[in-house]
Amino acid sequence: LDTSCGVGCTLTSVVPVGYAGQTLFASGRMRLGRSFELEAIGGVEWRDYLEDDRAIRTVSGVSTALASMRRHDLRWFTGEALTWHVSRAVSFLARHELVVNTSNIAGASAVMGGHDGHMGAPSVLGDHGYDKQAITVGSAIRW
Description:
Strands 1, 2, 3, 4, 5 and 6 form a six-stranded antiparallel sheet that branches. The protein has strands at residues 9-14, 19-32, 36-59, 62-85, 90-103, 130-141. The N and C termini lie far apart (65 Å). Helices cover 0% and strands 66% of the residues. The protein has no helices and six strands. A hairpin with a 2-residue loop joins β3 and β4 (62-85). With 143 residues, it is an all-beta fold.
């Protein structure tokens, strides 16, 4: 697969955002004494994208598809939160969340092929796998 691009050439990646998905989610919460509350969440999501990711090379106005592949992602997510209820009106929250996304299109390790399942060349479509962590700290005042 020739992915070179010289003068007068452009490489374009087309990454669709529409998908159909299913999600399983669970959460639990418990009081720890009078002032604290602990919460845990977790889940899994399956995403099947509705269109193919595509890599296109354009030279002198003529476009050629270099690669095309339907994307399927599996996302795992977990989180935990601790809330401190200082009073009935004031509380503080600390939350941690982790998302792990794996994709059948995973950079140089992905193998491109047609819809007939034949093996092809290494992916030029990029890497759609990632990990993301977030920490949130907040407060609430109720009246």
